[in-house]
Design brief:
Enzyme class (chains A, B, C, D): lyase
Catalytic activity (chains A, B, C, D): 5-O-(1-carboxyvinyl)-3-phosphoshikimate = chorismate + phosphate
Oligomer: homotetramer
Distance between the termini of chain A: 41 Å
CATH architecture of chain A: 4-Layer Sandwich
Pfam families (chains A, B, C, D): Chorismate_synt
GO molecular function (chains A, B, C, D): chorismate synthase activity; FMN binding
CATH class of chain A: Alpha Beta
Order of helices and strands of chain A: EEEHEEEEHHEEHEHEHEEEEEEEH
Radius of gyration of chain A: 21 Å
Strand order of the largest sheet of chain A: 1-2-3-7-4
Number of strands of chain A: 18
Number of helices of chain A: 7
Keywords (chains A, B, C, D): Amino-acid biosynthesis, Aromatic amino acid biosynthesis, FAD, Flavoprotein, FMN, Lyase, NADP
Shape of chain A: globular
CATH topology of chain A: Chorismate synthase, AroC fold
Strand content of chain A: 15-25%
Largest interface: C-D, 113 and 113 residues
Chain lengths: 359, 359, 359, 359
C-alpha cells in the first residue's frame, strides 16, 4: 500500500516527478459550491516560486496551475464553483534539465533518498531525485490553495513564518512585517542577519537549516481521538515534508523541563490563560490558537565535496553541481501552510460528519 | 469519520474508557501462522502496570489480557498461532472508582480534554477522562505486544528509554542498565537524580515532564512516500499519545543550527558515518538505526489549586484529588515502544505488498 | 490488507469464530447523543436466533448482546446515549460443540470455505467453519441494530422479506403479513407451500435456496459516485453475506430484455412513475423506494453423502453430521437488513460531510 | 467522504467529466519494475472506442492515452517500467459538443442522474451528464490496462463477452469467435440476430439492454473475508458501472431453485466437478474459473418522447437529441474487464501482504 494520498474526507493524491511531464494532485471530497478563483490559486502557487533572491536558486519555474476537472461556471456567475466531483490539478514542467543529473546516475548523494529509494523499489529515476524532489511540493501547495478557499467558509486561516535560520533566532514577533522580507520573518532585524548569514554560507558552498512556526485560528472541536488526534495528524502532514526533522506543538520540547502547574493553561470565563497546549487538548482543538513549530534541515545538495559510494558500493567523492537553494526556507513556508490547511480542512469535514441531528 | 484505527495493513482499532467495562483492541491484518505466546503478551502488559514505585500511583490494575479471537492451537503444538482473522484483545477493568470523580462532573480540569471533548461531542463521560484517559493506552500496549511477535520474524526490535525527567538529563547512554532503574534510564547516576527530583515534586503536589528516546533496528526499504513517509507515520503514532507534545527524528531540532555539510551523513562502503538522519532518508528507512525522541508533558492532574471554569462558564478553583502519577514517565515507555512497533509492522506489511515478482 | 471492516464513516469491524470465545463488533464513527436502548438491541438480536421452527436447527444460542464501551447514561436519563467514541459489542458463545467437528479436521466440505481458507492462510480453524461460519453474522446484526437507531433520526427504515424459497415464489406482496409466518413471507399462501417444501427437503437430507427482497425508504442524495455508488456499496455489503450469490436493483436482470422506453421511469411533478431504477439514479438515491433482491444459495451442509478430498488430496466420501438449518432463510433476513442499514447509515454520514455551508 | 477511488492496495482515483478538459486516473500502489507498453495500453483504450458500427454512436473520440508520471525507461531498455510511484493517466477531450446539451439545462432526463446529482450536490454540470457520463469509463479502461500488465506477471487474465442483447440469448458458447463480431458474442448465429435486433430498435428510436459474462483464470487464495470477500468486491466494482443493474456469481439467481446437493460442487483429486460456486468459496478464490454475469440496462437516452419535469417541477415532454448508442453493449465489455482486473490486481497485492514468512 503506497502512501501518496493525504486526508480521509478531503483526500489529496499527488503524482509527478521533478523531471517528468509535471506534477499534480487530485482532490476527492471537496464540498460542492465553493468558489475557486483561478487567480487566487495561481497567486498561492507563486508564493513558493524560486528565483526570488539569494536564498533561492535562480531557476525560473512558472508553476502554471491548470484545473482539469471538478468545476463549473454556473450561469450568470463569473468564477467557477466546485461541483463535488474530483478536482484534478496539474502543473506541467517547463524548465527541466535532465542532463545536469546524468553524473548522478550511479552515485548516491548523501542526505538524499537515492539509496533508500533504490532499496525500496529496486528501480530509481535518478533525475533530480524523481519523486523525492521538492518539486513534488508544488502539488501540495496547489491542493492547499483549494483547501484555503474551503477553510475561508469556516473562518479558519493559517499563517507560517520563519523563527530561526542558520542560527539566527527571532527576538520579537511582529506578524505585520513578515511580507516585508523574503524569509517571511516576523523580526525585521533578525531578517537582516539571516540575509547576511545566507550570503556567507552561499560563498562557503554550504546550506542552512532553520525553524518555521505555523499558527492557525481554529474553532473548538476539530480532531479525532484517539489515533487521529489533531496534533498527530498535523505532525503527520508536516513531517511528510522532505526537509522536516521535528515537530512540536505549543510549548513543545520545553515541557520536558516544566512542572504541571506551569504547563497547565488556566481556564477563565474569558478563555485560556497562556497557550502551552498550542490550542489542542486531548487531540481536539480547544478554540485557542493552534501553534506548531517544525525543524527544517539544511538542503543536502551542497557544492562541497562529500564522501559517498556508487552502485557498486565503492567509495567515491561527490560534488553536487547544478543550481540549488541555500535553505528550504523560505520556499517551505507555503508548503507548511498547505499541509496545515489540508489537515484542518480534512478535520473540518470529518467533524461535520458527526454533527448529526440527534433527538 | 472518527479516528480510532491505527495502521493500514496491520490495522488496530481500540475501544474503551477508563471507568467503563474495560478497554480493548481488534487487530485486522495480522499475518497467519505467527505464534502468540500468552505469557509473553501478559509480560508486555505488565511493563506499563502502575504501582511499581514512586513515580507511579499506587492503584493496582492487573491489566489481565484476554485474547478473544483470531488464534488456534494447531494439533501437536503448545502455543496458539494466528489464523489471519481478526485478533480481539480485551482488558476488563477491575479497579475503577467512579465516585472519586463525581466532583468533576461540572468542572473542566486544566490541561485535560474535558473542555474540548464537550465542544466536539456535546456529551461527556466525566469519569476519569473517559476515552481520553491514559487507561486507553493499555489497548495499545496489548496490540503492540502482538506486533512485537510479528516483527521478531523480520528481526526488527524496538527499545525506549528515558533521556530526561524533571530537568535531569542523561550524560551517558548505557542501554545495559535501563532495566536496573524504574525510569528505564540508560544513565544510572541520572536515574538517582531523577528519583530525588520525583520525590521533591511529589511533596510539592506537582508533576514532571521529560524526554523519551526510542531506537529501532530496521531493514532498509520501509516507508511509503510521499505522505506516509516512515518519519511521518512514526510522528503520527507517537503524537497520538496523550502526553506527547513534540517528536524529532535523528538530529531533530538541532538541524536548525547545522550546515548541510555537518548534517549530511557520509556514506561509506561499510555504511553511514553518523546518524543525523535518524535512520530514514526521503521517508524510507535506510538501514541505519532509527532514532526518535518525544517530549512528554507533565501530567495535568496536580494536587495544587488551579483556576478553571464550570459548565456555566463561571470561575472556580479546582484541586484534583485521587491518586495520580507524578510523571507519565516511566509508564509511557512501553506505550512509545508499542506505537513504534505498530508503525513498523504496518510498514513491513505494506512494503511486502510491493515485493511482487517482476519480469 | 485484511477485510473485516465495513463502511468508511460508520465503520464496523467484526471479529470472532463460531467455536471460539464469541463474536463481536467495534463501531467507530457512530454520532454522539444517539439513544441506544439495550432492550431494543437485544430484540434485534433475537430475530436471527435459531431454533424457532422447522427451517432452523434446534441449537439454542441466546446471542446475549453486551455493550462494552462508547455509551454513557447522562444524569437524569434512563437509557444510555452514544458518546461518539467506539462502541464495542460482544456476543459470547455458550453452546459450542467443538467435538462434533473433529471428523472434519482433515476433510474439505463441498460448498464450504475449508479448501479456500487453507489455500489463503495456510492454517485453518476447522471447528464449524471458524470465521466462515454463519455465526459471524451475529456481529453484523448487532452493529445493524445500532445503525437502526441512528437511521431512525433520519426517518430511514429497511425491511427484508422472502419472495422465493425452494422453488415456491410469492404471487402477492402484502407486507402486513410478513411477521405472521416464520419465513417473513408477504404471501400467506406461499408461506404455507414453503413450509411443506421445507419439510419435504428435510426428510431428503437436503437443503434449499431462495430469494430475499429488501426495501428501504431513503431520502434523495445518498451515494458517492463514481465507485461508491449506492447500488455498488449495497451490492458489496449484501454479497459479503456468505450465502448470497447474486444481487439486483430495481428491475434487475429483467432490464436485459427491456427497451429504454420501458425501463426509464417517467418523472412527474408528483414523483417517479414506476421504479425500474430501484430508487437509485447514477449511484445516488433518487427519493424513490430502494428495492434490492438477493439470491440465497442452499446451505452446503447436507446429510447426503458427497464426494470430496482430504488434506492429502485423496478422494473421500463425506456426510456432514450435526444439526443444521434447511435454508439460510429465514435467519438471513435480519442479516440482509443489517447490511442495508450499515450501508445506508454509512452513506448518510458520508453525505453529511459535504453538506457544508457555502457562500 | 466522496467515492472516486477504487481499491485499497492498487488504488485508482479517477477524475473528469464528459465535456470538460478530459478524464484521467491516478494509480497509487502499482508495483515497481512492471513494463508498461504504451502501444499495448492504447490498444486497450481503442477497444472501447465508439463509432465502430451500428450499436455505437458515430462520434469519434480518439481516446489518446497519455502517461504523465510513474514510469522511467531504464538505461538499455526500450519500454518504460513502473517506478512504484503514482501513475497519472490522462485522456484529453477533443470532440465535445457542449452546445447540443444546452436544451437540457433545465430538464431532468428520465433514467439519468440529473435529478439525483442535483439533490446531492446542489449544483450540476448539465453538459452530457458531467461526471455521470459513460465518458468517465475511459479512465477505468486506462487503469485496467495497467492492471492487465501487472496481472500478466501472475498469470491472471480476464475475458468478457455478450451472452444476451435485446432479448437474443446465446445458445452456444465458443470463445474463439468473440472477436469475429462487434458484440464480442461467443455465438455467431446469435450475433447476427443481435445485429438485426439493434437495427430494428434503432429505427424505433429506442435502446436495448443485455447481459455480459466475465470469466477469469485466477489462482486460489484471493479475497479478504468477511466484508471484502472476492465476490463482494467484484460486485462492488461491476455495479459501480453506470448501466449495471444486477450481478451474479456462478449459478447466480438459479441457486434459488436448487437443492444443496445440486448446488455443491463436488471436489475430486483432479479439482472441482462443476462450477456453481463461480470460482469463489467463502469469499476466497478456489482455483476454479471465476464466472460472473452482469445485467446491463438499456441506455436511457432515447429519441422517443418522454414525460419529465423541469427545475421548477413542471411537467415537460423531453426528446433527447444528439448521437447516442443503441446499447451499452459492446462498449461496456472492456469496462467490465477493467473492473474485474482492477479488483483482482487489488486482491493479488492485498494477499501478498499476508504471504509473510512465518517460523
Amino acid at each position: 500500500m503506497a502512501g501518496n494520498t493525504f486526508g480521509k474526507a478531503f483526500r489529496v493524491t499527488t503524482w509527478g516527478e521533478s523531471h517528468g511531464t509535471g506534477v499534480g494532485a487530485v482532490i476527492d471530497g471537496c464540498p460542492p459550491g465553493i468558489v475557486l478563483d483561478p487567480a487566487f490559486l495561481q497567486a498561492e502557487m507563486d508564493r513558493r516560486r524560486p528565483g526570488q533572491g539569494g536564498a533561492s536558486s535562480p531557476r525560473k519555474e512558472p508553476d502554471q496551475l491548470e484545473i482539469l476537472s471538478g468545476i463549473f461556471i454556473p450561469e450568470g456567475e463569473d468564477l467557477p464553483r466546485t461541483t463535488g466531483t474530483p478536482i484534478s490539478l496539474a502543473i506541467y514542467n517547463k524548465d527541466a534539465h535532465s542532463k545536469s543529473y546524468d553524473t548522478l546516475r550511479d552515485i548516491f548523494r548523501p542526505g538524499h533518498g537515492d539509496i533508500s529509494y533504490l532499496a525500496k523499489y529496486g528501480i530509481r529515476d535518478h533525475r533530480g531525485g524523481g519523486r523525492a524532489s521538492a518539486r513534488e511540493t508544488a502539488a501540495r501547495v496547489a491542493a492547499g490553495a483549494v483547501a484555503r478557499q474551503v477553510l475561508e467558509q469556516a473562518g479558519i486561516d493559517v499563517l507560517a513564518y520563519t523563527v530561526a535560520l542558520g542560527g539566527v533566532k527571532i527576538t520579537e514577533k511582529n506578524l505585520e512585517v513578515i511580507n516585508d522580507n523574503r524569509f517571511f520573518c516576523p523580526d525585521a532585524a533578525a531578517a537582516e542577519k539571516m540575509e547576511a548569514r545566507v550570503d556567507e554560507v552561499r560563498r562557503m558552498g554550504d546550506t542552512l537549516g532553520g525553524i518555521v512556526e505555523i499558527v492557525a485560528d481554529c474553532p473548538a472541536g476539530l480532531g479525532e481521538p484517539v489515533f487521529d488526534k489533531l496534533e498527530a495528524e498535523l505532525a503527520h502532514g508536516l513531517m511528510s515534508i522532505g526537509a522536516v526533522k521535528g515537530v512540536e506543538i505549543g510549548a513543545g520540547f520545553k515541557v520536558a523541563d516544566m512542572l504541571g502547574s506551569e504547563n497547565n493553561d488556566a481556564i477563565t470565563p474569558e478563555g485560556f490563560e497562556g497557550n502551552n497546549a498550542g490550542g489542542i487538548l486531548a487531540g481536539i482543538s480547544s478554540g485557542n490558537e493552534i501553534v506548531i513549530r517544525v525543524a527544517v534541515k539544511p538542503i543536502p545538495s551542497i557544492s562541497k565535496k562529500q564522501q559517498s559510494v556508487n552502485l557498486a558500493n565503492e567509495a567515491v567523492t561527490i560534488q553536487v553541481g547544478g543550481r540549488h537553494d541555500i535553505s528550504a526556507i523560505p520556499r517551505i513556508i507555503p508548503v507548511c501552510e498547505a499541509m496545515v490547511r489540508l489537515t484542518l480542512v480534512d478535520h473540518l469535514l470529518r467533524h461535520m460528519s458527526i454533527a448529526f441531528p440527534t433527538e
